[in-house]
Amino acid sequence: MGHMLWSHGAARILALLGALGAVSLAARATAAQAPPPGEPAATVCVDPDWPPYDSLDAEGNHEGIGADLLRLAAERAGVALTVVPTRDWNESLAASHAGRCDILSFLNDTPQRREWLVFTDPLFIDPNVVVTHEDHAFIPDLAALTDETMALPEGTAIEERVRQDFPNLRIVTTRDEAEAFALVSKKKADMTMRSLTVAVYTIKKEGWFNLKIAGQVPGYENQLRLGIRKDKEALRERLDIGVHAVSAAERARIANSHVAIKAQMGIDTSVVAKVIGVFSVIVLSNLFWIGKLRHANRRLLTLSRTDSLTGLANRAHLNERFARELDRATRYGRPLSLIMIDIDHFKRINDAHGHLEGDRTLVALAGLTRANTRATDIVGRWGGEEFLILCPETDLIEARNLAERLRQAIRKHLVLDGEPTTLSAGVATLGPGDTQDSVLRRADEALYRAKNEGRDRVCTSPS
């Protein structure tokens, strides 16, 4: 018998996706250190059918990534372990709740589980991905779906969280991972959501190459920990020490050893090579889609913060940046000023030349404003023909001089039918006890004073 590990390229792809991490196989053969005198071995309940993370073989031996990680962490914490066999994960949860197990292996921290458990820091972090049939469309946002079904193993943290976060989806529960994948493969469910490591393992093992990774939900990572009963707080503290003693290199080696393709001698190696080739294409394709999803999410974030006409920060983004700059200036006693500007007689431009010319004027003003402010200034469209400039590390005199330079640049370079376009500006600086609203209000009052005094001028508001 021989073993043929996954191709090096495919393993590196998974490493880039953050799916890999576990302990050396040598840890499996290392006996746990003896517990302190008089202290019995800690009892452990596991998921008996969750490869490659956790499983129990016919003799009740604990195997998998989680098994090796738990053994190594327990060894380094000086904790001896005894596995309590169960038929499924729900029975393991019930046994833990009833006090028959001190430890639950390899699980996510959820509000429901915190009712009786405390948790170590993560042993293994693995992204969850949305798996669909190969002809299903790419899924940029689960919340936007309607009338779609997701198959999930019953009693898992993912089932609990998806029900809460995505009530638009119909959840179909299954006994295990394999059944969930089978429903999607046979188009009896639209999708499932599982960890990338489990998805890779199951698709390979069952040969479901008609499945693909169609999306990833930000923030939906498996942070797999050890759950310890609340009445065993000292045990949690000791195991946490063991968890921290497991190195990143040890975590990486075990994943490569468990996520492997096994081939018996005598099998046509060309067939195996084809399977590996097909699977590598699937992984590369999925990497492309995940990259595309991340790019789309970044694009959506940019659009949500940007004024579509001028390309400047929009009001929501200005408010966000203003809050951060205000907090920094207040905390460290640094100056912060605002300039609020408004195009004079903008309605006349729209009425005389049309709204298209009005839009061109706003775009031109945005470009001139960017060109005549500093790299540290934050420029945005506040609304209509009003613009706001946040000026960190700038006192009232410096901000007024900046506003005056901008007023002159607009007058000189923004000319329509031989007439210069002018603006009015109000300047305010942060004072003791000021809030975001109070500084904005004083900048706005200074702007309207500039309007009332004849326009085409800069007025200031003392702090």
Describe what you observe in this structure.
The protein has 14 helices and 21 strands. It is α+β, with helices and mostly antiparallel strands. Among the domains are: 20-125 and 223-264, D-Maltodextrin-Binding Protein, domain 2, CATH 3.40.190.10; 315-461, Alpha-Beta Plaits (2-Layer Sandwich), CATH 3.30.70.270. Strands 2, 6, 7, 8, 9, 10, 11, 12 and 13 form a 9-stranded mixed sheet that branches. The model is unreliable at 1-35 and 261-269 (pLDDT under 50).
- Would you report the number of β strands? 21
Q: Which geometry do the CA atoms define?
A: elongated
**Helix percentage:** 40-55%
Question: N- to C-terminal separation?
Answer: 82 Å
Question: Briefly, what CATH class of one domain?
Answer: Alpha Beta
**Based on helices, strands and strand pairing, what is the structural class?**
alpha+beta
Report the sheet with the most strands, covering strand number, pairing sense and barrel closure.
9 strands, mixed
Spell out the CATH superfamily of one domain. Periplasmic binding protein-like II
Q: The CATH topology of one domain, please?
A: D-Maltodextrin-Binding Protein, domain 2
The percent range for strand residues is: 15-25%
Low-confidence segments, given as residue ranges, are 1-35, 261-269
Mean pLDDT over the residues? 82
CATH architecture of one domain: 3-Layer(aba) Sandwich
How many individual helices? 14
Radius of gyration: 31 Å
Enzyme class: transferase
Pfam families: GGDEF, SBP_bac_3
GO biological process, one term: cell adhesion involved in single-species biofilm formation
Keywords: Signal
